[in-house]
Sequence to fold (311 residues):
Amino acid sequence: MLNEREIESCYLGQFIPVHYHHNMLMDNNRMHSFKSAIAHAVKPGMKVLELGGGTGVLSWFAAANAAKVYCVEFNPDMVQEARKFMAINENGDRVEVIHADAFEYLPPEPVDIVICEMIHVAMLREKQVEVIESFKRRYRQKFGDKLPVFMPEAVLMAAQPLQQEYDFEGFYAPIVQFQETAVVHNNSAELAQPAVYAVIDFTQPNGMSYAWQGKFVVERDGTVNAMRFITKNILSVVEERATTIDWLNHYMVLPLARPVRARAGDVLEVSFAYRAGGSIPSLEATLEAAVVFEAGQDAVAAPSDAVPAYA
Fold:
């Protein structure tokens, strides 16, 4: 019998099928970004912990320099996969694959870096934020106040109003869609610039809830019938070059229950609320948009915070 957490994990994504993890190995954007960040951050002789290791590939990247890597995975199928892969890859003997719950596990010794790639767009579905906050509390109790470096070090989340096409060979279906980040999406018309609604800094305490109400200046006429959610993971800070190594998740496009007609120059107000690790429908159910200033109303000034920048 599965316990309550295991049942939730099956629903929210921790027990995703093995082939999904195989697809992640074929995601060149993800793989290259993490390999570069790990190569920069993990110095020779370091001790590394990965929470939610999957196939173990990120732990294996770390093993190129690390003296020891603890790779924790909750899904027994993935534990078997990771151990198999470690056995046939150079330096795999430096990785100890441990079948354990990331909410409960602590390494037997202090570690220098903690990798946690439980990342979904908008920090939904997977429990990354909650896992890291729990880990920090327990780690301090065992090893003292000095925390390891976390990867990612921070996360920026933004939202953007869209006019999204939902015609599928004549079949109208407003569905959740995921989009690649490096291509042009002809079925998505961007009606305003993205706005950052939350920043997560894993060196600081982080709450579990995101509630946001923000404004956008509409740049072109259209019907706002969807919101694009953007998640940028700052994997590692390269201080010597004053830059970062980043990974941009696929965009997530959520349909609005009540589309809004807007003209260029209008100010659109958008609001939503959800919990880190929650379901996509929990965010979708709270998502609302309304025009709060029409471009023809000269007597009312547009708010100064209407177009927060997203870099």
The domain at 154-293 is CATH 2.70.160.11 (Hnrnp arginine n-methyltransferase1). Helices lie at 4-12, 18-25, 28-41, 57-63, 76-87, 128-143, 280-284.
